[in-house]
Design goal:
By secondary structure, this protein is an alpha/beta fold. It folds into 2 domains: about 130 residues, 3-Layer(aba) Sandwich (Rossmann fold), CATH 3.40.50; about 100 residues, Beta-Lactamase. It is built from 9 helices and 10 strands. The strands form 2 sheets. It has a 5-stranded parallel sheet with strand order 2-1-3-4-5, with helices on both faces. The chain has a 5-stranded antiparallel sheet with strand order 7-6-10-9-8. Strand 6 and strand 7 form a beta hairpin. The mean pLDDT is about 85.
Length: about 280
């Protein structure tokens, strides 16, 4: 970034001397002979540091730099004067209008060091402004991401609640079906069993879930299961476990979803068996 310096003094020889001294430091140097002319230069150029004489016609250096502060607050402003009007200069320093007050005749090394420090101060301010802007933008982005995350969490929570309710309803429907249902994994482990399945198979006091189908199912049902694994589906067959427990059963294979494999055993009580149980007053299946 080019360093631009504005020199304001009503004496041409002073301006020429300053230009000769400071040109070696690589600054872009602009000059003006009065405060009004200096304001015109500022309108057309991006100036970082201003050095102004104090005693000038129409407008003093402090008055000029105080006006500059209002319009271009980011500039770094220095008074260079052979007159020590301490009150006006002190007031301007206290109000922040002036960064440094240097006297004529000046010490070349001290003047150059103060100007270098002024540019460093300007660049530090500029960097702080840039970083503050970046931080604000980052905070805006973070706020947007947080809002989006909250929305996603809310949507996901709502989805999970719906899924839980659907699962609860599905379980309730399964438990109250008028037919018995068993879900058997491809390893032969029973994963699902409703109330009627427990009752038909004589396990009302226990739990079929987690048991091996080979150990808890009658042989005839295990044989049907083997055929279903081979053929994919079986026809309804009449099963008689004893005189009181008779039903129709069929198997079908799972596999619509790639990660779910196994079989479904459906058992429906025979109508005449249900009526016979009712007549005996058992209130059974």
């Amino acid at each position: 970034m080019e360093r631009t310096l504005l020199l304001v003094d009503d004496e041409e020889n002073i301006l020429r001397s300053l230009v000769r001294l400071l040109r070696r430091d690589g600054y872009k140097i602009l000059t003006a002979n009065s405060g009004d002319e200096g304001m015109e230069v500022l309108k057309e150029n991006d100036v970082s540091v201003i050095i102004s004489d104090q005693r000038m016609p129409q407008m003093t250096g402090v008055e000029f730099l105080s006006e500059v502060k209002e319009i271009y607050p980011g500039t770094v402003r220095i008074v260079l004067s052979g007159y020590t009007d301490l009150k006006s200069v002190t007031d301007a320093i206290n109000q922040g209008a002036i960064f440094r007050f240097l006297t004529k005749p000046w010490d070349d090394a001290l003047l150059r060091a103060n100007i270098e420090e002024a540019f460093q101060y300007y660049e530090l301010q500029d960097e702080n402004i840039r970083l503050t802007h970046e931080l604000k933008e980052a905070n805006k982005e973070l706020s947007f991401l947080n809002q989006d995350l909250e929305k996603r969490v809310e949507e996901k929570t709502h989805e999970l609640i719906l899924n839980m309710r659907a699962a609860q309803i599905s379980q309730e429907v399964l438990e109250n079906l008028p037919i018995a249902v068993l879900g058997i994994g491809d390893d032969g482990t029973i994963a699902v069993a409703n109330q009627l399945a427990h009752k038909l198979l004589g396990h009302e006091g226990g739990c079929l879930v987690g048991c091996s189908s080979e150990t808890v199912l009658p042989e005839v049902l295990n044989e049907m299961l083997q055929y279903a694994v081979t053929d994919g589906i079986s026809e309804y067959e009449r099963i008689s476990l004893n005189e009181e427990i008779q039903f129709e059963a069929c198997y079908s294979q799972l596999g619509c979803a790639d990660h779910i494999q196994g079989s479904i055993l459906v058992m429906r009580p025979l109508k005449d068996q249900v009526e016979a149980n009712l007549k005996r007053g058992t209130g059974g299946i």
